[in-house]
Amino acid sequence: MRPVTRDPVRVSADHRGGMPARVYQRSRRNSSRDPAPSRLSFRLQRLWLTPMVRVLTRVGLPVLVVGAALAIWLGDAGRRDAVIAQYNAIKEKIEHRPEFMISLLKIDGAGPEVARAVRAMLPMTLPASSFDINLDAYRDTIRKLDAVADVSLVIRPGGTLEAKITQRVPVVLWRTPRGLEMLDDTGHRVATLITREARPSLPLIVGQGADQAVPQALRLIADAGPLLPRLRGLERVGERRWDLVLDHDQRIMLPDADPLGALDRILALNTAEGLLERDFTVIDFRNKDRPTIRLSADALAAFRQAQSDSLKARASQ
Amino acid sequence: MTDLYESQRAMRNMRKAAMQRGVIALLDIGTSKIACLVLRFDSPNGTDGEGSLAGHAAARVIGAATTRSRGVRFGEIDAMVETERAIRTAVQAAQKMANTRVDHVIACFSGAEPRSYGLDGAIELQGDQVTEADVGRVLASCEMPPIGHGREVLHAQPVNFALDHRSGLADPRGQSGSRLAVDMHLLTVDDAAVQNLIYCVRRCDLELAGIASSAYVSGISSLVEDEQELGAACVDMGGGATGVSIFMKKHLIYGDAVRLGGDHVTRDIAAGLQVPMAVAERIKTFHGGVHATGMDDREMIELGGNSGDWEKDRRQISRAELIGIMRPRVEEILEDVRAILDAAGFEHLPSQQIVLTGGASQIPGLDGLAARILGQNVRLGRPMRVQGLPQAATGAGFSSVVGLALFAAHPQDEWWDFELPIESLGGKSIRRAIRWFRDNW
After folding, report:
1. Who among B89, B309, B310 is closest to A37 (CB)?
2. Does B93 lie in the same domain as B48?
């Protein structure tokens, strides 16, 4: 029961009947406090013990509050920009730490011109952050150089960007109306040459579409051993077959099918009968069943003379 | 009669709903304390199965709380607001321990003047075999005794079925015969007390899923199986009322209560020694007894007091004096119990076992005194073990709430568990519907 008076200080008479003395009693407030929960707290606790309410409050409410606070805070465009700027600044700072900087471009396996071109192609000025360089794009750009067959780019620790370049090797010269090009063994352009004398050792090909058939031309040249001193070049005719052009305006016309076999046959004839020492202008091997030799004017006259002489001699007998 | 049937059926449905949810609270509204247990059923139909222990394994106590009872006298609600507060305290603490919300409550109380009636009824079977409808019909055929105005049926349990010449059947369903007879035990209580209890529980936002008599449920928990089978009496000595229940063949066959209990002993001590009730209660529990020996004359008890008067505050009494105050009241209670047992014809039972339980049975030497008054076969009983029950709730004072747990896990068939035959339930309303049709079409 609740005490009627809640004041712990009681005034009680002395047992001898003297003055009333103040007697401090132990507070009874603690012992007599109603331990029963109020109706409201009882209901609230029951509500709190309901599983659905519990989950909603412990998960849903914090998520909602944080989400709402974020949404309100980010609703202002200035704050949003500030956050993005801060983010970018931190990103910048990390990317430009000395561990991630590239200070040197090292180029292996390239000549001075190619190296200069590769250096010129680097999209930024060194030193730069390694996060800023797009290695794939740079690799593709380098590969677009005609003189470069392949390239591998590696960022070495210590801030070195290493470019290992495999250069194309020029094996043949191609004379076109626009000038003289050097081609590699696949027919790909390597560089333009100003004068033929700059690379006298390389064989020469001409004609439209000659670059498409460079491997065949190389095989022909390799095959034409005894002819080489006299060979001036190969001419692509009609984008389908080769002419071997020799000095003294002589020419060997090869078929478009199996030119190597035809060449071998010519060489065999040369060995057997000294075919190439004859005075001819054209050896026509386009039809291998019917090879034809076009003689020069002098030779033809001499041939006719010799024929008539032999006829006369036979008639005189 | 039909109202009661409906309300009890509604409570059964509530109990089923609670089982579905898996959590139910048990409330023992006593005069000196209110105990609350929260019971969890792990499988939703845990009460199914055969045997008397079928439902026990599935139930587990997950919350327990006790609080000092307020506003209860003689096991009946006296000051409703105070009782409501006490119930809220107990339920809240138990919920907190269980960490779950409880909506359904099974309550028991000891007062409200329970009275027992034995009923019998018999019918001729329509088919060859006894069906569930036949059981309902035979239960409905029992002659309702004049229970008096303002009384309500609390338990109505079929105790015994007889089929032709065979008696003592526990479950006659499916057996063949021609005449089915039933013996039913009816326990009635004061209507107002039950209504107060229902209202009080409702005010705590709880749904009542069943009511039981505390004498009955403490008998369930403190009598062991052979005692329940062979016949025994359970004396539940509570604070304001002492319940007596007699069991036979695992059925309650008699229930009554004495409107005296441990609180009256405390009141006697307070009046006799001029001390507050709290001090008297403390002296009773620490030094109480019913057998005085020579040693007790020398054991002095400080009474204390806050009066400020030195003579009053320094009083001492010997334990023998205390026993001299307690013993007559305890003897009075036991003699009233003896009178109830005599009225019930307890001496005709094959076994004369008497089990004392309840908070007031913890007085030292009570079993010796009870043996003199009630008979030789007296023992002190503690409640059975229920899984998860805290150690603090295993004492004799918790036998009724533990019995409620067993009662909830494995309820006995009651009359309202069976369908009423159609003629007694709805004949009148069908006739009224037909008349309405005739009038309007």
Report:
1. B89
2. yes
* Regions in chain A scoring below 70 on pLDDT: 1-33
Q: Closest Cα partner for B21 from B145, B110, B120, B104?
A: B104
A231-237 and A241-246 beta bridge pairing:
antiparallel
Alpha carbon distances (Å) from A290 to A4, A160, A273: 143, 66, 17
Give domain status of residue B176, yes or no.
yes
Neighboring chain A residues of B95 at a CB cutoff of 8 Å: 45-46, 49
Q: For residues B292 and B414, state if they share a domain.
A: no
Chain A residue with the nearest C-alpha to that of B82: A36
Which phi and psi (to 5°) does residue A294 adopt?
A: -100, 120
Same domain? B326 vs B198: no
Secondary structure (3-state) at A34:
coil
Quote the mean pLDDT of chain B: 84
B32 CB near a chain A CB, below 8 Å?
no
If asked whether residues B13 and B71 sit together in one domain, one would say: yes
| Whole-prediction pTM | 0.63
**How many angstroms separate the CA of residue A69 from the nearest CA in chain B?**
32
- In chain B, which among 189-228 make CB contacts under 8 A with chain A? 204-205
Interchain proximity B92–A45, CB inside 8 Å: yes
A37/B88 touch (CB, cutoff 8 Å), yes or no: yes
For chain A, the residue count is: 317
CATH of the domain at B430: 3.30.420.40
Number of folded domains in chain B?
3
Chain A hits for B100, CB-CB cut-off 8 Å, are: 49, 51
Pair B3, B93 in one domain: yes
Q: Do A15 and B67 touch (CB under 8 A)?
A: no
| Side-chain-side CA neighbours of residue B111 (13 Å) | 24
Mutate: best of A10, A48, A49, partner B, most B CBs <10 A = A49
Residue B135 counted as domain residue: yes
A49 CB neighbours in chain B (<8 A) are 95-96, 99-101
Residues B109 and B44 in one domain: yes
Whole-complex ipTM: 0.70
- pLDDT, tens digit (0-9, with 9 covering 90-100), for A40-86: 888 888 888 888 888 998 899 999 999 999 999 998 889 999 999 99
- B306 part of contact set with chain A, CB < 8 Å: yes
CATH number (domain holding residue B165): 3.30.1490
Residues B47 and B62 in one domain: yes
Is residue B335 domain-resident? no
- Which range of residues forms the domain containing residue B121? 115-188
Is residue A140 a contact partner of residue A171, using CB atoms and an 8 Å limit? Answer: no
Residues composing chain B: 441
Select from B330, B347, B362 the last residue of a domain.
Answer: B330
Structural domains for chain A: 98-167 (3.10.20.310), 172-308 (3.40.50.11690)
B327-to-A59, B232, B283, B368 alpha-carbon distances in Å:
61, 25, 14, 12
B238 found inside a domain = no
Contacts with B309 from chain A: Cβ below 8 Å: 15
Report CB contact under 8 Å: B88, A34.
Answer: no
Asked if A46 lies within 8 A of B67 by C-beta distance, the reply is: no
The residue assigned the tokens 């040369």 is A270
In the numeric block, which tokens belong to residue A253?
């016309």
If asked whether residues B323 and B421 sit together in one domain, one would say no
The nearest CA of chain B is from the CA of A4 a distance in Å of 17
Best of B70, B85, B105 to mutate (most A CBs within 10 Å, chain A): B85
Q: How many helices (H) and strands (E) does chain B have?
A: 14, 18
* pLDDT tens digits, one per residue of B183-213: 888 888 888 888 888 888 888 888 888 888 9
